TrEMBL record:
The lineage of its organism: Bacteria, Pseudomonadati, Pseudomonadota, Alphaproteobacteria, Hyphomicrobiales. Residues 167-433 form the Beta-lactamase-related domain. This is 6-aminohexanoate hydrolase. Pfam families: Beta-lactamase. SUPFAM superfamilies: beta-lactamase/transpeptidase-like. GO terms for molecular function: hydrolase activity. Keywords: Hydrolase. PANTHER family: BETA-LACTAMASE-RELATED, BETA-LACTAMASE-RELATED DOMAIN-CONTAINING PROTEIN. It comes from Rhizobium leguminosarum. InterPro entries: Beta-lactam-related (IPR001466), Beta-lactam/transpept-like (IPR012338), Diverse_Enzym_Activities (IPR050789).
């Protein structure tokens, strides 16, 4: 009996030592996967608390834990409102990661904990806050009497709207004809676009093109590329996701994309130092790193740092009346052009309407002729799925024609079910925002097809099978 007790005591002691060792290891050298998880939690909670005005525990549960990796259910967060910070820790103890709120520029991940550097990276003179008004949309937030009961009824169908829908706005002939919101969300709630931000970022670059400060054919884009093959990469290669740069966009593990977003305070560093894996223009590789490079490139072309920080607001958001738009910066002062734009569904619809109007707003051309045409022109390397302007022609599975949609449809799409569908032949824009992971297999074409089918015969249904019109080339 004594022998057995000794064995049990030894095993208990060994177990305690193992626990202490594991805890010490997690405390001193936490695995990168835990740091990524905590970085993601801190950033998402920070943005939704300080930009959208949501409760931290609701965001942690609904946005971070419910749809994600089971390990995220062990993450705990704390919000320091006095210092505008959020901290996330695995089990409340390990792998701490941080996010900092910087006013008009939203939140940023601060993976190195250097809050002083992160604070100094954001300008002290942010653009003035725009105020919404009650005029009829798109001039204001009013919707008037343009509601379409048939389309509104469609939006109440969960099978059409999709799981965990948060906002849908349907714009026909320049007016909102239907909208719907999930529980806890409204027309006033800013929502993340994820990769829809890429298309907005490309459009900001397009504003510079109108002023002659950059062109599709520009090369020698970064000083560090000067003496190697990367010097031949053109702006057009980056816009079409055909730069030839290696980049791992796999979100299931610690990959280039998660390292860039949650482990590196300077998001430009990783994609700027990526090796070439193909000649420019020869291979399609979807890359969030590419979009961040485009941010850095257009910011450098603006002229000076303060002007660059103000440029999205002055060049795009203010002219379109996107009063809610918050375009976030990384911890070293580059716009996170891959992922982090928050805006209300009404403002996402304004952006969609702007593209529908070929880059013209209130009679003023804000984008060069042919720029939106590039967003509607397929690239060969993507097999026609992606366009020459950071937009999709065939998101998810299949083509527009195969889904029974007008062939001129093009899309903004983002992680977890964000989409803006633009259908010029139907004079139609459909915004759908939510928290719908890809594993739920919801396709945005489902909603758009139902709406197109409900339109009057004089609209899109007559043109759904028509031949695609030739688009301007960049």
């Amino acid at each position: 009996m004594r022998f057995v007790l000794r064995i049990l005591k030894a095993l208990a002691l060994l177990l305690v030592l193992l626990v202490i060792t594991a805890a010490g290891w997690l405390f001193i050298r936490p695995p990168e996967l835990l740091r990524v998880g905590d970085g993601y939690a801190a950033k998402i909670v920070c943005s939704n608390v300080f930009i959208a005005g949501r409760e931290a525990e609701d965001v942690l549960h609904d946005d971070v834990q419910a749809p994600g990796n089971p390990l995220l259910r062990l993450v705990r967060v704390s919000v320091d409102r006095d210092n505008d910070r959020v901290t996330a820790r695995f089990m409340g103890l390990f792998a701490p990661s941080y996010a900092l709120y910087r006013g008009a520029f939203g939140c940023t991940s601060v993976p190195d904990g250097n809050f002083e550097a992160a604070a100094k990276a954001a300008p002290f003179d942010p653009p003035a806050k725009m105020q919404a008004n009650d005029a009829l949309w798109p001039e204001g937030e009013g919707t008037g009497n343009s509601a379409d009961g048939k389309i509104a009824a469609l939006l109440s169908d969960a099978g059409v709207a999709g799981p965990a829908m948060r906002a849908i706005v349907v714009v026909r002939n320049g007016r909102i004809v239907a909208e719907a919101y999930g529980p806890g969300f409204s027309a006033k709630t800013p929502l993340i676009g994820w990769s829809m931000t890429k298309t907005v970022n490309a459009t900001i670059l397009g504003r510079l093109m109108l002023g002659g400060k950059i062109s599709f054919d520009d090369d020698n884009l970064l000083a560090q590329w000067k003496n190697d093959a990367r010097a031949k990469i053109k702006v057009s290669d980056l816009l079409g996701m055909e730069s030839g740069l290696a980049f791992n966009e796999n979100y299931g593990d610690v990959a280039d994309v998660t390292r860039m977003l949650y482990l590196d305070p300077d998001m430009v560093s990783l994609p700027a130092n990526a090796p070439m894996e193909a000649a420019p223009g020869q291979r399609f590789r979807y890359s969030s790193g590419t979009a961040v490079l485009l941010s850095r490139i257009w910011m450098d072309r603006v002229g000076n740092a303060q002007a660059a920080f103000s440029y999205p607001h002055e060049a795009l958001f203010a002219p379109l009346g996107m009063t809610s738009a918050v375009f976030e910066l990384d911890a070293r002062g580059t716009f996170a052009g891959s992922s982090y734009l928050y805006a209300t569904a009404h403002d996402w619809a304004r952006f969609g309407q702007f593209l529908l109007q070929d880059g013209v707003w209130n009679g003023q051309r804000l984008l060069p002729e042919g720029f939106v045409g590039a967003m509607r022109t397929p690239t060969a390397a993507s097999n026609g799925r992606y366009s020459q302007g950071q937009a999709w022609l065939a998101p998810g599975r299949g083509s527009s024609a195969g889904a029974g949609l007008p062939e001129d449809t093009f899309w903004l799409t983002g992680h977890d079910g964000q989409s803006v569908a633009i259908v010029p032949s139907a004079n139609l824009v459909v915004v759908r925002l939510g928290l719908t992971p890809s594993r739920l297999d919801y396709q945005p074409q489902t909603l758009l097809k139902a709406i197109v089918t409900a339109l009057p015969q004089s609209g899109a249904q007559q043109q759904a099978g028509s031949q695609r019109q030739a688009q301007p080339q960049p």
